[in-house]
Amino acid sequence: MAAAAAAAAAAVGGQQPSQPELPASGLALDKAATAAHLKAALSRPDNRAGAEELQALLERVLSAERPLAAAAGGEDAAAAAGGGGGPGAAEEEALEWCKCLLAGGGGYDEFCAAVRAYDPAALCGLVWTANFVAYRCRTCGISPCMSLCAECFHQGDHTGHDFNMFRSQAGGACDCGDSNVMRESGFCKRHQIKSSSNIPCVPKDLLMMSEFVLPRFIFCLIQYLREGYNEPAADGPSEKDLNKVLQLLEPQISFLEDLTKMGGAMRSVLTQVLTNQQNYKDLTSGLGENACVKKSHEKYLIALKSSGLTYPEDKLVYGVQEPSAGTSSLAVQGFVGATGTLGQVDSSDEDDQDGSQGLGKRKRVKLSSGTKDQSIMDVLKHKSFLEELLFWTIKYEFPQKMVTFLLNMLPDQEYKVAFTKTFVQHYAFIMKTLKKSHESDTMSNRIVHISVQLFSNEELARQVTEECQLLDIMVTVLLYMMESCLIKSELQDEENSLHVVVNCGEALLKNNTYWPLVSDFINILSHQSVAKRFLEDHGLLVTWMNFVSFFQGMNLNKRELNEHVEFESQTYYAAFAAELEACAQPMWGLLSHCKVRETQEYTRNVVRYCLEALQDWFDAINFVDEPAPNQVTFHLPLHRYYAMFLSKAVKCQELDLDSVLPDQEMLMKLMIHPLQIQASLAEIHSNMWVRNGLQIKGQAMTYVQSHFCNSMIDPDIYLLQVCASRLDPDYFISSVFERFKVVDLLTMASQHQNTVLDAEHERSMLEGALTFLVILLSLRLHLGMSDDEILRAEMVAQLCMNDRTHSSLLDLIPENPNPKSGIIPGSYSFESVLSAVADFKAPVFEPGGSMQQGMYTPKAEVWDQEFDPVMVILRTVYRRDVQSAMDRYTAFLKQSGKFPGNPWPPYKKRTSLHPSYKGLMRLLHCKTLHIVLFTLLYKILMDHQNLSEHVLCMVLYLIELGLENSAEEESDEEASVGGPERCHDSWFPGSNLVSNMRHFINYVRVRVPETAPEVKRDSPASTSSDNLGSFQNSGTAQVFSLVAERRKKFQEIINRSSSEANQVVRPKTSSKWSAPGSAPQLTTAILEIKESILSLLIKLHHKLSGKQNSYYPPWLDDIEILIQPEIPKYSHGDGITAVERILLKAASQSRMNKRIIEEICRKVTPPVPPKKVTAAEKKTLDKEERRQKARERQQKLLAEFASRQKSFMETAMDVDSPENDIPMEITTAEPQVSEAVYDCVICGQSGPSSEDRPTGLVVLLQASSVLGQCRDNVEPKKLPITEEEQIYPWDTCAAVHDVRLSLLQRYFKDSSCLLAVSIGWEGGVYVQTCGHTLHIDCHKSYMESLRNDQVLQGFSVDKGEFTCPLCRQFANSVLPCYPGSNVENNPWQRPSNKSIQDLIKEVEELQGRPGAFPSETNLSKEMESVMKDIKNTTQKKYRDYSKTPGSPDNDFLFMYSVARTNLELELIHRGGNLCSGGASTAGKRSCLNQLFHVLALHMRLYSIDSEYNPWRKLTQLEEMNPQLGYEEQQPEVPILYHDVTSLLLIQILMMPQPLRKDHFTCIVKVLFTLLYTQALAELSVKCSEEDRSAWKHAGALKKSTCDAEKSYEVLLSFVISELSKGKLYHEEGTQECAMVNPIAWSPESMEKYLQDFCLPFLRITSLLQHHLFGEDLPSCQEEEEFSVLASCLGLLPTFYQTEHPFISASCLDWPVPAFDIITQWCFEIKSFTERHAEQGKALLIQESKWKLPHLLQLPENYNTIFQYYHRKTCSVCTKVPKDPAVCLVCGTFVCLKGLCCKQQSYCECVLHSQNCGAGTGIFLLINASVIIIIRGHRFCLWGSVYLDAHGEEDRDLRRGKPLYICKERYKVLEQQWISHTFDHINKRWGPHYNGL
Q1: Which of 119, 502, 1150, 1764 is deepest in the core (most CB within 10 A)?
Q2: How buried is residue 1802: exposed, middle or buried, by Cβ count under 10 Å (0-12/13-18/19+)?
Q3: CA 1455, CA 237: separation in Å to the nearest integer?
């Protein structure tokens, strides 16, 4: 093989070198013989000679002396010696030799088979690359990464399992048979048998040659890899060079790959070869005398060195190896001290250029570190082929072939261990190569492809961890990787900060380059044994915390205060992804192993080092107690590690919380940053960060989004809950209000000044602060809820916001990201909780055509008892979702009659707190909070500004929480006695809410601006009193300052905790955070309040209800209510209900409160203090009421408007609902009006259409091939799903008509042929309208305005497309309305009493008049232009059937066929018959009348020469000249071969319009006679010879009777006798018998046959009459359809009695004696059949009974389609298409977007849509399960007709769940196809530019 590569090399660069030792005949030697001889020599006991001989041969054959360097652009090319030889010849030769030698003289294929026989195939091990379709079964998997190939999956039994199909992203391998990764129950049939026992031993001589040949072969490969690799110039190896080398080596690597596929026996030989160290040493050491080997060894050393790696032994050669830039390394031990100190900032860093562009101003930071840990980072020593092969694989950036070869070997256990160790040994090198790589994405995928196979196996991972320090290596390598992109942190103290963070703008983070390494790390941490080692190793934990601290505080946001930021950085994606992947996921992995008591030690370790890292962090950023203003980072992974391990410790390990908590001072520091984030969230939602651009909103949303929330906001809130439960409550509460910047607002005064917040933001920030407190106090996620309760709460919250599909629920419910955690989506608990809380709504359709998916909606009892607004607020990404939940809740209460008005969020009972967190409730019982609540209640009552209902709601919620969680019932006595002493600060006596509620506050001193109304000069003495007796207090009431309060507490805590009292607080930012008292323009005033919380609540009740004295204590009527306060009547309601509920709870908790409430109610207080019962007060109340009413009115109006709009949309869009149509008839039906009046929807005027200002109908013209798809069987064809099934289009309507036309054209005159048939079965033009009219000049200006409109529309104005200005229906032309009378009161309609002979003459005369085109009026111009539009709608090939191109006959044929197409399609829309009668759905909006005018006008330009007018042949007897037919070369088409319906249209369109009714009837009668004769002729051809002669005689006997002309028997016998004069019946071939039904023809069956033959004509004619004369169609039963239509058309004589069975012949009305004209007609056929009997017979048979068109029938299960088509090769290019699709009309397989199948710039789908559907294509995209519609130049995604078990689509098969056909959806699709309404119903269209 070496020869091979060398030869190729020579071809590229050097010449082929000479091979002196090889005689010319050497290569010609018989290889097989040589091989056999060598094998024999080696089999001898003493085989040295044989071995040497083989070595010599291999030296020659695999000679590596041809320098491959040339191929890679090396300089040695010139040195290569000369020589000839073809380029690939030597290469082939070498491989041939190897195959021969391996087989030892036998045939190579037999050898392969022999080896395979010894394969103990217990494992599948099939390796696949990206995009392969594989399966994953969670029920059978042990490792979450388990995957199976399709074959193993389908052969195993996975019914009822939780499995899905997926597209491999990085590649993978099949795990079937590997019990480490999956349960044995899931193995497939092939791999179930543990077959090692019954496989015979491998005979020694079978693989003996392999053991000798393969080492040389692999060595050769390595030499090429060495030779081919050239150290790149400055910028990294050029892709091209590496790829060139790899291309040359393709055959060799494939050869190795084939060897691995021979099974276990060969693999074990390969393993021996690859891992044998002696072999490697002998061959590669470069010490021998072989110059070539020496040289390649040198290249190898150079490559090592350039990679910054040393080869231990070579230190002497190269002196001391200098660490190359970028690989500075930290030892695990040395790193701890080094983090703090910053090394030099060095910009000579090798990869600096790519980091600097985004953040030019930030310098990268390098950590300098004393000790080098070279063992991990810089040393590599190769001891075997395997190791060096992997080295080159990495060097060449993981070529796919090499990866596949290395993975194919994995089923060999010994190899697996060796390879894993080698992989770990190269781990650091992989990281370096990955960082430099330009194709890091591809490379990442290949790395993971390998590593996931190695590290998913717990046993192996444990072994490597023990033997190769896997964990040390991984952590160090990760640390190193991140180290290259550190910058200085600007958090807190920008100048002096020593903290470094990763720079999120770097490519490394932006492109997620780190993910392969992180994902490996997460993978190995999922194994318990590995995770335990990690958690026990203190050094590792320290290093890991250092790694995590790189992310602490990254992506810092600074609030822009002046200008809008000019460049919105998008780095936050990178930051969130990095924290989730690099920090949170490993954390969840570790947490999953800390579930039991025995693991307490691990938690203590983590918490200890986490706290140390946090302490270091606070020191590094110089943090004391105040966070820097206006900056926030969402990334605090250290805080979150700490929080989650604390939670786990308490929840699962029964650890005492206090034993792992730090001191108070540390807790105070810990709470600052998470609290800062909560405040910033409120600021962002208050639009205070709007100058930072949209991305800051993006961060706020991502922080709470379902994939991130349980690693971000949940731990933050939990940490704050822990801090709150341990810190002083007053300190905590005041901190909260200070962080939210609303301290100044909390004053009793009506005016205040806020130094830190604009007035417009105050309200929302106050709401934010209170909402945060509510969440903090009521959330129990980590404080005592079980996993199932959490899951239920999350699910209820999501379902309350909106109905959800199953998959979106799975997606929205946060699960621990580590897949091994308890709740796996789709697992039992998920499904059971879902069925407990939700009902399933099956997928439905709306009339507009939008398709719903299957949805889950909350059960009624969930709304009633479990709706939790707090959880909803916590989990909403968009604020509108909270509103949506409340609206749904309101609707539920209204519907169930529980509450009629606008309810408030319900108060929900909470799960009980875990004892460790009981301290949290002290927040509710601290004076600070009570003062705040009191102040807010007072302000709301006094109508101060900036307070909302939301604030009141939260205040009441907090009071209620306090009452629910109060201390044990306090004794009333104690409260009364201890009053005065405890009331030291003149606000509240104690800290219990229950007693503080009743405490009266008389006076409060406030600071107010000079201008405030409160400023009074005199101050009363008594300041604060309890109602039990006043007492004097020193001085007056104090101003209460939250900030001062917080400072004081902070001081106390610090002094308590640090013995060094000299550590006084530096009030760093006191200038900014001034206490409210410090502003000079404030003055002090004393307010008289005289209220308690209870009295305020009662007054609020009055205020909310708008009535005085509205509150009456319920317990006065029913004392029981106090004992059992949980009353359902209070559970839902508005503010009034909430107040009542609170007062009831307060009373039931304390007798004193009860007494005081009664007292207050007795006093009958007016709703406000007496000073202010003013008109103004009343005014505000009125105002509120008025507002409420206005709001209700508005709601009502909106609702009404919405319902109107909905009904309009339905009528405008719905194609199938005749009932609810707005009457948009084109014509009005008052008999006195003589002219039709039209409304123009643009200018709004109405009037008749005139010659100079015509009105037109808005129409859509489209080419259609739906008619052509009719077949003659009812069952639709099935979509082929195996190679055998095929669909042939021979039996479609279009094909049959095509064949007939070409047959006629072969034997008859062309112009006559074109009058004998209709075209338009394929590519016919269908015209439909929405029924709206407009002036044509208005339309032109409308088009002009559209053209100038810059908005991107979904249609192309240049092609004349537009939407109807009124109903927005898609249209592309305007059909002019012919001026003139209405259809209904047509004077021509009155029947005349003329005889049929007279009428026939008149018709002939009228047709003979030349049709002059009317004078040049606007109307005639429009008629012309619309005709042009109609022609251009379809392709030329569907218009031109004439043999002479451009012949006028073409146009003539095309025009009457347009009428035919529209009539036929309407018939199909009515279901294929006219039984239903009445005006059809399309009736009101039909434009056939107008269309007929346009067509008639144009057709009359072509007069048919009266000689050839078929009318004469039908109504006159001619001289029969036996010679006539033969002079002409091609005769005219015999009249019996004409299509009667076509004749009808020609006759009618040739008449001047408007047509008289009696002329119409006359034409129909004449044509019916021809039709009937055709029916008889066809019948005669179809029956057998005996039948014929029987009928002939039977009929002849009756010929003389009076009504012989109306008896079918007589007529039939006559037709038979006339036709038998020719040769028509003589050719009774066998094939004819096949057509004949062997049934006995009874009179009944013959009658039915004749009726069926005539019915299609009668239906079309009746429709035509309905449109031309406006007569309604009668409805009837199917069996009487013929007679009803016949009498409706005037074919039946009026006096006809219906008693005896109906006979179709009675409709006949012969214009000339029947037998004469029949003789004449048959004569034409006779003369033709004399020459062409076969064809003559075929043409007599007309297929008229077409069934309705259908799309193909699809299989029940989507998998059957997918498995067949996704691997199917394209017939054009024989490749498997990337996006295969299949046409649902005809089953053709096409490539979507495939460039290979492109023809003249049209891709295959577009082309097919033109050929199959004349521009309309319906394709099922195989890989996406979606249907795509192509309509002309636009396309749209229609949706999917396959849904999963939960009624959901699975677009792109992302979820991979089994899909089943949804029959209703498929019906809708078919309906839209048949009714041509794709354009109207589907809204999202886009241009495809022929690229599909």
Answers
A1: 502
A2: middle
A3: 68
Contact by Cβ (8 Å): 787, 1046: no
56, burial (CB in 10 Å: exposed 0-12, middle 13-18, buried 19+): exposed
AA identity, residue 1253: R
Look up tokens 């009249």; give the residue.
1535
- Between the CA of residue 211 and those of 407, 569, 975, what are the distances in Å? 21, 60, 97
Q: Are 173 and 125 in contact (CB under 8 A)?
A: yes
Burial string for 82-97 (b: 16+ CB within 10 Å, else e) reads eeebeeebbbebbbbb
Within the chain, which residues score under 50 in pLDDT? Answer: 1-28, 64-87, 234, 313-362, 368-372, 818-823, 825-826, 969-984, 1017-1036, 1058-1080, 1166-1177, 1212-1233, 1383-1388, 1480-1483, 1523-1527, 1629-1636, 1638
The tokens of 1153 are what? 């409160």
Cα-only R_g, the chain: 46
Output the six-digit token pair for 159: 């019914």
Alpha-carbon distance 1724 to 74, whole Å? 88
pLDDT in the model for residue 149: 92
At 682, list the tokens. Answer: 């409120």
Write down the pLDDT at residue 1808.
92
Cα(1760)–Cα(1769) distance, integer angstroms = 16
Tell me how far CA of residue 942 lies from CA of 149, 880, 932, 1100, in angstroms.
73, 30, 15, 10
Using an 8 Å Cβ cutoff, are 1791 and 1779 in contact? yes
Quote the CA–CA distance of 1239 and 1226 in Å, as a whole number.
9
Task: Report the pLDDT value the prediction gives residue 1759, as an integer from 0 to 100.
Answer: 92
Q: Hey, which residues does 1839 pair with through a beta bridge?
A: 1827
pTM over 0.85? The answer is no
Alpha-carbon distance of 1467 to 1465, in angstroms, equals: 5
Tell me the sheet residues that pair with 845: 851
Element of type H or E holding 163: strand 163-167
Q: How far is CA 481 from CA 265, 326, 329, 590, in A?
A: 41, 10, 10, 22
Write out pLDDT tens, residues 461-513. 999 999 999 999 999 999 999 988 999 988 888 888 889 999 998 888 888 89
Residue 768's nearest CA partner among 844, 879, 630, 890 is 879
Please state, in angstroms and rounded to a whole number, the distance separating the CA atoms of residues 1561 and 1688.
10
Neighbours of 1699 (CB within 10 A): 5
* Angle 1863-1867-1868 from CA coordinates, rounded to 5°: 120
| Distance set, CA 108 to CA 96, 102, 103, 111, 408 (Å) | 10, 8, 5, 5, 21
Q: Which of 422, 453, 450 is nearest to 180 (CA)?
A: 453
Asked whether the CA dihedral 1756, 1759, 1763, 1769 is positive or negative, the reply is positive
DSSP H/E element including 1213:
helix 1175-1213
Cα separation, 455 vs 525, in Å, equals 10
Q: Tell me the two tokens of residue 1610.
A: 């007589």
* Contacts with 1123 (C-beta within 8 Å, 6 or more apart), sequence order: 1148
* Terminal Cα-to-Cα distance of the chain (whole angstroms): 45
How far is the C-alpha of 872 from the C-alpha of 801, rounded, in Å?
Answer: 7
Buried b (16+ CB within 10 A) or exposed e, 1029-1043: eeeebeebbebbbbb
pLDDT score recorded for residue 194: 61
Instruction: List 563's β-bridge partners, or say none.
Output: none
- How many other C-beta atoms lie within 10 A of the C-beta of residue 822? 13
d(CA 1500, CA 1495): 9
Please report, for residues 499, 516, 534, the alpha-carbon distance to residue 476 in angstroms, rounded to integers and kept in the order given: 20, 15, 13
Q: Using CA atoms, how far apart are residues 45 and 29, in angstroms rounded to an integer?
A: 27
Q: Which of 1704, 1690, 1542, 1694 is nearest to 1608 (CA)?
A: 1704
